[in-house]
Amino acid sequence: MAYCYILYSKTLDRYYYGSTELEPNERLELHLQRYYGDKKFTAKANDWGLVLMISSESVSQARRIEAFIKKMKSKKYVASLISNREKVDWLLKNV
Questions:
Q1: What's the predicted TM-score (pTM) here?
Q2: 61-75 pLDDT, tens per residue?
Q3: Which of 18, 48, 59, 61 has the fewest CB atoms in 10 Å of its CB?
Q4: What is the CATH number that goes with domain 2-94?
Q5: Kindly report the CA angle at 67 between 21 and 78, in degrees rounded to 5?
Q6: At what angle do helices 59-72 and 75-83 cross, to 10 degrees?
Q7: pLDDT at 38 over 90
């Protein structure tokens, strides 16, 4: 199982998008512990929370979904994904 996940920091008022083979809560903990380094984007805040997790059939699908979300470059789009499961289902079928 692979996942595309979205984190949100209230301090930064920013989203972070990623994909992983780990459970998203495990990946979140690694970000919060600055496992990936102090220079990485998620190191800028310590209040990241998991706001969306999309289970994918493969790592490649999870990465395609992540890339699609990043390409949209829109907080409104991300907010609509969080609140509308039908949009997530569309991603799983079409990306």
A1: 0.91
A2: 999 999 999 999 999
A3: 59
A4: 3.40.1440
A5: 95
A6: 130
A7: no
Identity at 3, one-letter amino acid code? Y
Residue 44 per-residue DSSP state: G
Q: How far does Cα 61 stand from its chain's mean position?
A: 13
Q: Name residue 58's amino acid.
A: S
Provide the residue type at 10 as one letter. Answer: K
Q: What is the pLDDT of residues 24-33, one digit of tens each?
A: 999 999 999 9
CA–CA separation, 26 vs 74, rounded Å? 26
Helix, strand or coil, per DSSP, at residue 79: helix
Give the residue extent of every domain in the chain: 2-94
CA distance 68 to 60: 12
